[in-house]
Amino acid sequence: MRKVIGTSFTFSIQILKEVNYMPFVRIQLKSGRTPEQKAVIAKEIIDAMDKHDFATRDSIKVIFEDMLPENFITDADLSEK
Question: Residue 46 class from Cβ within 10 Å (0-12 exposed, 13-18 middle, 19+ buried)?
Fold first, then answer.
C-alpha cells in the first residue's frame, strides 16, 4: 500500500489483484468539502492513473472518508494547549 500525507488529507492506494487490477484510492479529509470539490479531485486522480497506465478508468474507485475535526489531532493542536 502506498500512502501520501498532506496538510488536511491522507490518501492511500490499495490494489486488489483478482482478475484485473482494481485500485481503490482512499482519501481521508476534514469534513466540509462539497460533492463538486470531491468530483474534481476524483477526476484528477483517475486521469493521472489512466495517463500512466496504472489501471483502466472504469476499474478505479475513489473513496472519500470525511472526518470531523475533533476526531484527529496534529502536533500544532497540541502546541496550542
Answer: buried
